[in-house]
Design a protein that fits this description.
The protein is an all-alpha fold and about 220 residues long. The protein has helices at about 5-10, 15-20, 20-25, 30-40, 45-55, 60-75, 80-95, 100-110, 115-130, 135-145, 150-175, 190-200, 215-220. It contains 13 helices and no strands.
Length: about 220
């Protein structure tokens, strides 16, 4: 799976994270501009804004954890996976119940082929948020990499169950890009989609997630 797939995966958490901006703003000495920069779509601005928040001595632990997690996300999207890990470590130390940080660290560990560590993180994430489509997708990828086809397929199906039509369309588009699905990109989980997934999970090189730009129009 390419780094562009990492981008596609991580961008899916941004909407959920944006809902937490208000939590950052309550820190009395954190300017709204700094908070906005930490949640910017631009990775360089995000790193700078989150770094400024992290250096603020008046932040509560939860907000500081979120700033570390957002900076780690920006670093991972830039391909700096090993640099992202210490930030995720710190985010989780500050907030051990952050299912988002645990899942995102699991994804980075998966990308670094540290599968057993990634599995441990994503299992903890799912204990905290059992209905998270993102965490089920992460575990599916790890199971696929481990050659656990049945478990991988089961987790992809759970990801679609919890993620709804949008995630089904993403998989449809990704499977189409792999050349193993030729049906409509309509968000419906059909037997054709299942067959394509069964083919995909049989290979450690097949990724049902598309490159982000390939499905932007189809899944919007």
């Amino acid at each position: 799976m390419s780094l562009r797939s990492l981008d596609s995966h991580c961008r899916r958490v941004l909407l959920a994270l944006a809902a937490l901006v208000a939590a950052c703003a309550v820190a009395s000495s954190a300017s709204s501009n700094t908070v906005a920069e930490c949640f910017s779509e631009n990775n360089e601005r995000r790193i700078a804004g989150c770094s400024e928040l992290i250096e603020n001595p008046n932040l509560d632990a939860g907000t500081r954890s979120l700033a570390y997690a957002m900076r780690a996300l920006a670093l991972s999207l830039q391909g700096a996976l090993t640099q992202a890990l210490p930030d995720y470590d710190r985010a989780i130390e500050l907030d051990p119940a952050s299912s988002m940080a645990l899942n995102n660290r699991a994804w980075v560990l998966y990308k670094l082929d540290r599968l057993s560590e990634g599995m441990s993180d994503v299992e903890r994430s799912l204990d905290l948020s059992p209905a998270s489509p993102h965490a089920h997708d992460t575990r599916a990828h790890i199971n696929q990499a481990l050659g656990e086809r049945t478990a991988a397929l089961r987790d992809y199906e759970r990801a679609m169950r919890y993620g709804g039509e949008h995630l089904v369309r993403l998989y449809q588009c990704g499977l189409e890009a792999q050349g193993i699905y030729r049906g409509p990109i309509d968000g419906l989980y059909t037997r054709d989609v299942r067959r394509a997934l069964e083919i995909c999970v049989a290979s450690t090189k097949c990724d049902p997630l598309p490159a982000d730009e390939e499905c932007r129009a189809a899944t919007s």
